[in-house]
Specification:
alpha/beta, Hypothetical Protein Ychn, Chain: A, 2 domains, five-stranded parallel β-sheet, 7 helices, 5 strands
């Protein structure tokens, strides 16, 4: 009988320690996994194709600037595509909004093919917009599961 008591006293703490180690490992794995998922979902891409100035000034610019300044998204990437390239290159009020985005640390990219067709590549680059061929990058953004808002 005394042997049985001694064995229990030795084994129970060891089992308890193993359980604690297991719970801690599960907690750490889950915390890391959730943090990775949270970070992955903390980047927003906005695909901007509209040349409607009212939409740009009253939706896109207001949302993007507020989202960045209020911390709604850690990273924001605006993609100028299609008709929006010409609007940005030719309208000083829209350029002011884009410059404010860039000054706040918002990434602004433009499709090189679109800007070449509209003959505004140099204008966009002078503003500080990253002009490049966007087919593959956009595909990668979509495949990554990061949210994309289209305007």
């Amino acid at each position: 009988m005394s042997k049985e008591i001694i064995i229990r006293e030795i084994r129970e703490p060891e089992i308890g320690q193993l359980e604690d180690m297991l719970y801690e490992a599960i907690f750490l794995f889950t915390s890391d996994f959730l943090q990775h998922k949270f970070n992955q979902m903390d980047k927003l891409h906005i695909l901007w194709t509209s040349d409607n100035k009212i939409t740009v000034l009253n939706m896109l610019a207001i949302y993007v600037l507020n989202a960045k300044s209020r911390g709604w998204w850690k990273e924001i990437n605006v993609i100028i595509w299609g008709a929006s390239a010409k609007l940005v290159a030719k309208d000083t009020q829209v350029q002011t909004e884009v410059l404010e985005m860039l000054n706040m640390g918002i990434s602004v990219e433009a499709c090189k093919d679109c800007s070449d067709v509209c003959e505004v590549t140099d204008d966009l680059e002078r503003l500080g917009v990253n002009v490049r061929f966007m087919g593959e990058p956009l595909t990668n953004y979509i495949k990554s599961g990061e949210p994309i808002l289209t305007i």
